[in-house]
Amino acid sequence: MRTEKIGLNDFLFNRRVPEVISPRCACGERRQTAAHILLRCGIYKDLRDQVFGNLSGRHNLRAVLNKPQLATKAIEFIEQTQILRQVGIRDA
Question: Which superkingdom, per the lineage (predicted)?
């Protein structure tokens, strides 16, 4: 997550995955990155509040992932969103 090399639209679009036609998030606000999903995306606000409680003052991904307790919650949160794509290699 820290490197943003994760199966979200922004990374997959930049890697030219054919099924991904845009780097944007479904919310329309920004590119779909780990930082956007974890910290800002309105689609996941209720889930974020449920998993993290109050994240006030945590405005960057590194600040969240550098704390073991929050990093564990970040993994739980991403799993609960079911947002990560499973991109397989097709036969040529």
Answer: Eukaryota
How many domains is the chain partitioned into structurally? 1
Q: Residue 24 forms beta bridges with which residues? A: 31
The answer to whether position 91 is within a domain reads no
Question: Whole-angstrom distance between the N-terminal and C-terminal Cα of the chain?
Answer: 30
pLDDT tens digits for range 17-45: 999 999 999 999 999 999 999 999 999 99
Quote the domain boundaries for residue 37.
9-81
Alpha helices per DSSP H over 4-82: 9-14, 34-39, 45-52, 61-65, 68-81
Domain-embedded: residue 31? yes
